[in-house]
Amino acid sequence: MVGHNQPEGEFDSTSNRDNTLVLFDVDGTLSPSRKSASEAMKETLLKLRKKVSVGVVGGSDLKKIAEQIGSQDYLLSNFDYVFAENGLTFYQDGQFKAQANILKHLGEETLQRIINFTLRYVADLKIPKKRGTFVEYRAGMLNISPIGRNCSQEERDEFFAYDKIHNIRTQMVDAFKKEFHDLPLTFSIGGEISFDVFPTGWDKTYCLQYVEKFQKVYFFGDRTQLGGNDHEIFSHARTIGTTVTSPDDTREKLHKIFQL
């Protein structure tokens, strides 16, 4: 699927590193979920970077994104822009630029209200397996996992398949929306085992304020459907959005669109 403002294959010779930026989701786009990007992907991105500026915008923190791309040094050296936690932590040309903080924004009382509701909900949840770390506190969001982020890869895969049938995360998000209807919060499902909770406006479009100099901003992501954590930036008027189904699909579309 292609975004509303991108004809398939749109790219012209006037595009260059100064006026064109290509942003990527990480999980399911540059790498399999929570796994490492392939050498073939890295080679494709290096070819792309010779033509345009490149960046990543992921929901995870810098450490987790770096683990999937290769290393922190590699990540910061080979991407012009790195937006961790949807852009709330921002690096440009390898240098730290800015960081927002959910605790300062919401306050301890509201934060505990969300965490307490999460733990009560998970306690009553009936699913095949539960592990640990049901709530992961990040600078810009809370990441909530019904099975717990301490699950093994096999357990992750099992939950993902189970969730596709039983919609555990979708039901949780519906319950959270009802419980916190009085708060300006957004709930966004991404990856395989979790969903994010963050102040409204702190989705991946948050990063766009830092890239206003570019005439064209492309975005590639796999969770672009309504409710997915790529939807807002994919459908934003500022971006040329493309939906991908896997890292291999990303590479194929990059070669086609940018004539690599």
From TrEMBL:
It comes from the Eukaryota. Pathway: Nucleotide-sugar biosynthesis; GDP-alpha-D-mannose biosynthesis; alpha-D-mannose 1-phosphate from D-fructose 6-phosphate: step 2/2. It catalyses: alpha-D-mannose 1-phosphate = D-mannose 6-phosphate. It is found in: Cytoplasm. InterPro entries: HAD-like_sf, HAD-SF_hydro_IIB, HAD_sf, PMM, PMM_cap. Its EC number is 5.4.2.8. Alpha-D-mannose 1-phosphate binds at R34, R138, R149, R156, S194, D196. Involved in the synthesis of the GDP-mannose and dolichol-phosphate-mannose required for a number of critical mannosyl transfer reactions. This is Phosphomannomutase.
